[in-house]
User: Fold this.
Amino acid sequence: DTGVSQDPRHKITKRGQNVTFRCDPISEHNRLYWYRQTLGQGPEFLTYFQNEAQLEKSRLLSDRFSAERPKGSFSTLEIQRTEQGDSAMYLCASSPAWASGGQSTDTQYFGPGTRLTVL
Amino acid sequence: GNSVTQMEGPVTLSEEAFLTINCTYTATGYPSLFWYVQYPGEGLQLLLKATKADDKGSNKGFEATYRKETTSFHLEKGSVQVSDSAVYFCALWGTDKLIFGTGTRLQVFP
Assistant:
């Protein structure tokens, strides 16, 4: 397995446009997380899925944000009507839902991130 | 609520110097604690973790000990290299999610 992948790596958009990011987790991981990292800050939790079910959403996830994981594999994060304040690095991570094979549920593996710039 | 506080950076060291990056936490109970590292242009990589009090996590010459009494998880390395230059994040396991500190940038010069 090549790890968690994200696409695109960089996205520049104009204010008011919609953008969509994709994350492909490690194949055997049931849980998939989205975090947002702004400049000079640590990652902040946005939402997570266990299989296809979205189990928790942060207050940071406004109505303009929507995340899906329709088949329990890859996930998409869409931002509608982007604002300059949405400029950030969007990180995806995956982990197993149950401890097995030496992996624990609290150890997350991160992708390289998608850097969004809203002009 | 749960939170993590890290020392502000940047931390600037010469090669082979001793490194300490301070991290303290506030939490309900005794959550697992982590150090993640972010090299320029890359995602976060798990550096080490500790799951209970007095546990010591270690990897690549880095160490951190879970101190319940002082609610701390300071990162140490005896001799840093230029290749250790990166941003280091302390984190704790909240309810089904990681809670991160703000990160500490380490710059190591030859």
